[in-house]
Design goal:
595 residues; mainly alpha; two-stranded antiparallel sheet; two-stranded antiparallel ribbon; globular
Length: 595
């Protein structure tokens, strides 16, 4: 009973305060509805539009499938790539509150601009019903510029929101009390619940309004939801805990590299862990790391020379010339993660295809709900990916992991890298199933067409529900690999680099989007001159999308081999306290400076 009351009360920091630093008041669960509300309305406002953007570009802006797919891939890639810049600016200059506030407004402006492109006839090309849109007029330079302006605002918004929202919510709880730690766990649970809820509403209700009612209304609703998102966020401005930016850890990593290069001609001692500069700041949030033999070149940054100066507190007076072993090992953690991170590029290409070309497959399949006349919106099939993920995660966590734990004696049942690898195998299987289903859809469309899809071609009598297995399986694959990558970055990055680690996930998505766009362009260009015709033709029945899926599966096999090689080489982060660092999803006890 006491713990429940403690959870509900306003908490004060146990850290002693100074006359120059106000006491930190943590309001915890009292401000959680504001932050969760902001996040929910933001996702409701942007996710449905981003999932249906491909259909919008091809139907309203009269773009060809190749052009629209490439633009969507570039947009998604840039959106995810912007998170690394957002994390840097947040940690170094602005702090999370200002970054989130600015980004929320930018997302609203982006949605407003997109709404205007649909509502004002002069801001989009005239409607076209011609089959095969060669005769349809495309967007003018002015219309395209206005559209890209809206997408640019959305990129800015996502770049600030994605790397900061979880950390900002966790800032509101006192990390020094049990109730604060439990509150953080509750926040994470509610965050992922509302995220999934918003995704499902977006790809069903909002997508339906956009596709079957009106694009203007379908985009105006998300814009209004973004206004609510901003309102929820700014209402709590006076009561939020606002942590001051403490400098980007990337600057520390840069110092190690520069110092190592300056001392590249020096010889390392035989026992570096005894003779190198080994100062550790007492205020650091990072666990003290053991010395490792990998990337030994970086150890030279900790060699002490006669001209190196050390302050009275034991720190280096010239941090760009002399770094501590702790700093060096933190950079090694980052360097070891990068090869594993790169394996996500090709893995996510398979996920990208289940978000883009599956929409075109659905458009040329029988989308009528059985025993009704209701056509399921093509973009709404993505809900099966989310269902696959959300249904499998509790099964895996409550049934599979405890069973595996009895045999392997590992807390997670299997290692993080094994979890990621299994998800990669499922992605390969997904692409093979996708190829088989597309081959069947195409053959039936040519033999027994059900009708004509405007500006595309014959509709196959094959039910769109045949796409459900591949969509569900890629959701299960994400439950293994994507969640595995999140856990991997969280546990293997130094504690002060976790916001950067969070952005690594999105930067990986960005690389995959760019790679997917490049792959589509290359395949389109090469196969256009073949006797069998373009694999990625505007009319899927005239193309060979199945062969493209098999190509992605083959790339997945090669990537899996690369991943196995990197996994065998990888050395988990080790500290003085534990053999392998297994960090709970809780913030470490650390100083917070409040503005």
């Amino acid at each position: 009973m006491a713990s429940k009351q403690e959870t509900m009360e306003v908490e004060k920091s146990e850290k002693a305060t100074t006359p120059h630093e106000p006491e930190v008041i943590y309001r915890g669960v009292k401000v959680m509805p504001l932050i969760i509300g902001n996040e929910t309305f933001e996702k409701l406002g942007t996710l449905g539009t981003s999932h249906n953007l491909l259909v919008y570009l091809t139907t309203v802006f009269n773009m060809k499938s190749i052009t629209a797919t490439t633009l969507v891939n570039i947009f998604n890639g840039t959106t995810n790539l912007a998170t690394i810049l957002g994390a840097f600016l947040c940690d170094t200059y602005f702090g999370r509150y200002k970054t989130l506030g600015f980004a929320s407004v930018a997302s609203f402006l982006g949605m407003l601009v997109l709404t205007l492109t649909a509502a004002i006839t002069k801001l989009h090309p005239p409607h076209c019903k011609t089959v095969g849109n060669e005769k349809c007029s495309g967007p003018t330079t002015g219309q395209m510029t206005f559209l890209l302006t809206g997408l640019g605002f959305l990129v800015v918004g996502a770049g600030g929101i994605r790397p900061c929202n979880l950390a900002f919510g966790a800032d509101q709880f006192n990390p020094n009390t049990e109730s604060g730690k439990k509150g953080v766990n509750s926040f994470f649970n509610w965050y992922y619940f509302t995220f999934t809820f918003a995704m499902m509403i977006s790809v069903t209700v909002i997508v339906y309004v956009q596709t079957d009612v009106s694009w203007a209304w379908g985009l105006a609703i998300p814009a209004f939801l973004m206004i609510l998102s901003c309102a929820f966020f700014f209402v709590g401005s006076r009561v939020y805990v606002k942590v001051k930016p403490d400098g980007s850890p990337l600057a520390s990593a840069a110092r190690v590299v520069v110092a190592a290069v300056k001392k590249r001609r020096l010889k390392l001692p035989d026992q570096p862990w005894l003779k190198l500069f080994n100062n550790t700041q007492t205020t650091s949030v990072n666990s003290k790391l053991l010395h490792t033999d990998q990337f030994r070149f970086l150890d030279k940054a900790a060699i002490i020379e006669s001209e190196d100066e050390i302050k009275s507190d034991g720190s280096s007076a010239k941090p760009w010339r002399l770094c501590s072993m702790q700093q060096v090992e933190e950079v090694k953690c980052l360097a070891r993660v990068i090869p594993i991170w790169a394996s996500a590029f090709i893995y996510n290409v398979a996920n990208t295809q289940q978000q883009t070309y599956v929409v075109f497959q659905a458009l040329q399949s029988d989308r009528i709900l059985p025993n009704t006349t209701f056509p399921i919106p093509a973009a709404s099939y993505a809900v099966f990916t989310m269902l696959g993920l959300t249904i499998w995660i509790p099964i895996y966590d409550r049934l599979v992991v405890p069973t595996l734990r009895r045999f392997t004696r590992k807390d997670g049942g299997i290692t993080i890298l094994q979890r990621i690898g299994f998800g990669m195998i499922l992605a390969i299987v997904t692409m093979l199933i996708s190829g088989v289903v597309e081959e069947k859809r195409r053959s039936l469309a040519l033999a027994k067409p059900l009708g004509i899809e405007p500006r595309r071609g014959a509709i196959s009598p094959l039910s769109g529900f045949w796409l459900v297995p591949q969509l569900t399986l890629i959701g299960v694959s994400e439950a293994f690999s994507i969640v595995g990558y999140v856990e991997f970055y969280y546990k293997q990055f130094p504690e002060n680099m976790r916001s950067i680690g969070g952005s690594f996930l999105f930067v990986g998505f960005a690389m995959s989007s760019y790679l997917s766009g490049f792959l589509i362009s290359i395949v389109h260009r090469i196969t256009s001159g073949l006797s069998m015709g373009d694999w990625l033709a505007e009319d899927l029945n005239k193309g060979r999308l199945d062969l493209f899926y098999y190509l992605v599966a083959a790339m997945g096999v090669v990537n899996f081999g690369y991943f196995l090689t990197c996994s065998n080489w990888y050395k988990y982060k080790e500290s003085f306290s534990t053999e392998v660092v297994e960090v709970d999803m809780k913030p470490k006890q650390s100083e917070k400076h409040v503005v």
